[in-house]
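Structure tokens please, single chain.
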Amino acid sequence: MIAIYKRELKAFFSSPAGYIYIAMFVAASGFCFSMFTLLAGAESSITSYFTVELFIAAFMTPLLTMKSFSEERKQKTEQLLMTAPVTLPGMVAAKFLASYTMFGIAFLITCLNLPVSLNYLSEANLFRYNAVCALGGAVALFLVGGAFIAIGVFVSSLTENQIVSGSVTVVVLALLLLISFLNTYIGFAPLRAVFSWVSIYTRFANFSSGYFDFAALLYYISIMGVCMFLTVRVYEKRRWA
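Here you go.
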């Protein structure tokens, strides 16, 4: 598992892909940070910043995951992975952790902005509230990033075309983010409840507003576990096909 993880991580940094991802993520986050905090004056909002960060992560995650397994299938090297002295769960975990590490590096760089923003808040109550919102938003975004990556890795295991993998991942993540907005047009209460329960955005909004929702934490971790389990099942079926 460690060998595959190192290989995947090295692949990000031995090509422009990893650097481009980090640069794009940091640049987009920095622009949004400036718009919603530093330049917003009295209307500065940590909550709005993390909400936009959520959508940035959703649309950029496929850059990390679209070739996780698709590239292996296209280059006919997945047989080497399946016959390597590592379990299928270990192989999937290594791919997942390599992409998650890249996300974590970019995410940690963007977190350096937060102390700058909080430094402008002189009122004690306002400072404490925004500090809690910033902490909640950061924790939630890091976990949501893991859920996004797990979904992307699973989608990548289903196709050998990177473009298809990336496109499908974007569509799935967009649906999970935007599905709660359909509630405005749905009169059937049970269906609205289901959409709100599935929606990643609805659960994330609690954190960015200063409320730690432990059910949401479990939800994000569950998405990671389920998607990684399904990816393992895909390769178990392919191994014996």
